[in-house]
Amino acid sequence: MSPRPVRLRKISNPPVISGFRPYGGKKTNGKIDAVFLHLEEYEALRLCDYELLNHQQASLIMDVSRPTLTRIYARARLKIAESFVLGKQIIIEGGKIYFDSEWYSCKACKCIFNNPEKRVEIKECPLCRSVNLLSYDKGSDGLKELTIKPKNKKYESSNHKQRK
Amino acid sequence: MKVAITSKGNNLNSKLDERFGRCSYFVIYDTETKGMEFLPNPNKDIHGGAGPASVEIVASRNVQKIISGEFGIKIKSIIDSLQIQMIVLKEPDKSIREIIDMLNK
After folding, report:
1. Closest approach of chain B CAs to the CA of A24, in angstroms?
2. Which of A104, A136, B10, B66 could form a disulfide with B38 if both were Cys (CB 3.0 to 4.6 A apart)?
3. Contact assessment for residue A85 and residue A32, using Cβ atoms and an 8 Å cutoff
């Protein structure tokens, strides 16, 4: 029997850079060994160590189980440690992932739009500039109404907590 | 900022095309210079993979928003990773002129 297929991990924030290069160290004629950090590992690290969520919360955001999230996170730390200790460059790419972002709808012009950049908070409708917005949660059964209008800064994570 | 709108025809009175990949024309509108450009969609009658091919055309124009009636499941994740905003407008009777007026409001 073939093994169970890998569950796709949801990535809500693609990284702004595609990798890191070490400097200093001994010259190796421009050729530096690379460590491939998968996008899912980057995302796990971002959620756990930058957004300071616990593994349970992070696993909900990435749509995987808590033990899986912990394994992804452990792999991320292993790879980063390897690159630091051995002076390898990090290339962020690959992984079993899909991209997804939060969706909103405007009550005034009835349009539906997403937020491509999570760091920027949506305040108005991109089409008619109305501030009368609804936030949607994209579940398995299509679009489902969740909360009304993002307000505080912690909206992103608080929204996900409600999904539990 | 550049906005792409899917259109059924090549003038301002044309209606919004409900499909993205197989729309007739793309309108590339620049909100700063107010300039616009009508691009015929070469993928209109293609057999398969019209969505990703159309995303490539639109993305090569550096647009930041795409307005259309619908986005297929194949291209949502591509557009997401390109950090382009998708705006779904379920009003096929709206003309390109009306949509541009809304953007300028």
Report:
1. 33
2. B10
3. no
A22 touches B: beta carbon within 8 Å: no
Q: How far apart are CA A149 and CA A151, in angstroms?
A: 6
Shared domain check, A152 and A122: yes
Q: Please tell me which of A93-107, A150-164, B30-44 the model is most confident about, judged by mean pLDDT.
A: B30-44
Examine the pLDDT at A131 and tell me if it is beyond 60.
Answer: yes
Chain B hits for A126, CB-CB cut-off 8 Å, are 65, 85, 87
- Domain spans of chain B? 2-104
Percent of chain B scoring above 90 in pLDDT: 0
Alpha-carbon distance B66 to B58, whole Å?
Answer: 8
> Which A residues in the span 60-99 are in contact with B, Cβ-Cβ below 8 Å?
98-99
What is the C-alpha to C-alpha distance for residues B32 and B57, in angstroms, rounded to an integer?
21
- Summary count for chain A: helices (H), strands (E): 4, 9
**Do the chains contact at B87 and A129, CB–CB below 8 Å?**
no
Q: Are B60 and A101 in contact (CB under 8 A)?
A: no
Output A158 or B89, whichever has higher pLDDT.
Answer: B89
Give pLDDT tens digits for B54-69: 888 888 888 888 988 8
Residue A99: CA atoms inside 13 Å, Cβ hemisphere, count? 21
CA distance A79 to chain B (A): 24
Residue in B closest to A101 by C-alpha: B80
Among A113, A128, A129, select the one facing B86 at the smallest CB separation. Answer: A113
Which CATH code fits B2-104? 3.30.420.130
Total number of domains constituting chain A: 2
Query: Which amino acid is located at A87 in the chain?
Result: G
